Amino acid sequence: MGGQAERAYVLGIDSGGSGVRVALARAGARPEGGGDGPAPGPTWSSLTPAVVGDRGIDAESLLARVVPAARALLDEAGADGVAAVCVGAAGMATLGDDLRARLPEALARSFGARRLALAADGVTAYAGALGQRPGAVIAAGTGLIALGALPDDAGGAGGGWRRADGWGHLLGDCGGGAWIGRAGLEAAMRAYDGREGGSRPLLARLEAVFGPAGELPGKLYPRLDRPAVLASFAPEVGRCADRDPVADAILRDAARHIAQAAEAVCPAVEGGAVALTGGLFRMGDPLLAPLRAELATRLPHARVTEAAGDPLTGAVRLAAALATDSLRLPLDAALLSVVRGGPDGTTRQMGTDGPPSAPPEQSITPSD
Asked: What is this structure's pTM?
């Protein structure tokens, strides 16, 4: 495909709980200062998320937002189609059946796209943070998930995707914002009771934020957004850490949990990187200092870095890699699958579980 593919336009789509974003880019464009794949060009966004129904993420509701937005971006660029599309969606692994069934034909018909990547949002976060380099991405906000990858050309053993945690605030997300906030509130309630392990500074912050400590359970337990409420207290733990040994110990425990997740997924190859992304890391040194120390001990071969880009950047990068035949991240039925269209209108879906086999095929008609 050569230079023609690099001049072609590609489309990146990021669908999450906070809305939908669409970006257009040239497949061969490179950001200033270099980088792994193009940065998003013209971008459109909506705060309205795709609908989740009986079949999972509803393809029709997503297309209703994406198709007009992408057409407007293409009109602005003076283009009439794209070579490849990547759709990254929260819940793709478990709620993506309708997307996998309907998007290939719909996007081929709307934009002439014969190459489509369907990715979990963790994969687009990985591609945005590290491109196609081997390593791990730790995404930490209210919750926490670690995702590691060994691309096809990286060498080593045990390639593919690896995931750790991301199981929600009741079963995991250890070291995430809700975990830290809950631990801080527990220490505050211990101080309120006069029990061992309590923190008077955290109790003072609890009462400043939520009111009388004895009334907190009645305010917290009926809330449907309990994880977010718990996570809202995590910054208070960070602010107390330099003068309160209990708060400091909570953050050191969180750092250990985060590093354990990174250790579980990061491939043991030289040159691997661990990227940190998500709002929790804005807490700064109270969490980052012990985390960097833990990572240096557990993953001495890996370089810790900030994420280079966000999930929308990752979707654009994956679409560009598809268009230029340079996709190296491993395929996986739940996390990253690829649909390639042929000139006869048939498509070949790649990314299946188990040993290699003939991939499923379906017919689409891009020129309908």
From this structure: 0.76
